[in-house]
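Course assignment 3, question 2. Fill in each field.
Student: A.L.
Task: Predict the tertiary structure for the chain below.
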Amino acid sequence: MTTPIAITRHQGLEALELRAPGGARATLLLHGAHLVSWVPAGADEQLFLSPKSAFATGQAIRGGVPVIFPQFATRGPLQRHGFARGKPWQLVSAESGKEDALAVLRLSDDNATRMVWPHAFEAEISIRIAGRALQIELACENKGDAPLSFTAALHTYLRLTQIMSASVQGLSGLAYWDSAAERAGTQHEDLLRLDGEMDRIYQDARHDLTLRDGDRRVAIRQQGFTDAVIWNPGQEKGDALADMPEGGWKQMLCVEAAQVLKPIELPPGETWAGMQTLELL
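Answer field:
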């Protein structure tokens, strides 16, 4: 037996307030299919959301989980991080069940997208919460008659309480591209500790990661995505962001499931999907 979830409003924008049996909660905006809150059962908020974010039509939101599609960063001719995060998505379904709550949103090509990206497509985001776990799946179907190529990411901002002692475990042995230093490297240590600006794309990230933040542990798993992006702007760039409060960079770390270094090549009629799962341990 499931119960439909009605559309409400959050910061003036249409939203879905997901509540699962056991106490897990999440807030998903139709604007950009942007997840802005995730509270596991019996726990506190796990996502960082800047108090200076602009909640306005067409504007990107700083924090939560922005959907990056169909272009990562400036790696192509489109606007930075593509157009999906600034578009209104359509509600497909939203309901709570005996063990979880699930919402599905859809974005299809229109005149505006075809002007900058001439492809027929259908993208879907699925958000599921249950207990102390969150699953986010991004899927794209090529609805046209020609192949299409894209990059994508779930740009997850995780809340930090102790940045100087925070670390990410599970990257040992992985090659990466350091976007800040513009050079390639290899991760030799099992723990990646934050030391100022961090902007790395790790390739072939097949193993589970763990965010260590004081006594808190968040397991981070991904499927379908082959890259993992670790990003923190550091003090200089962080304090220069208009939508980030002074010192806000100390309160967040992005651990992103991504497809950047090798774009997805999707033949007509085919579908690709990638998922990130977060679990508070």
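Instructor remarks: The chain has a mean pLDDT of 96. The longest helix spans residues 234-240.
Grade: pending
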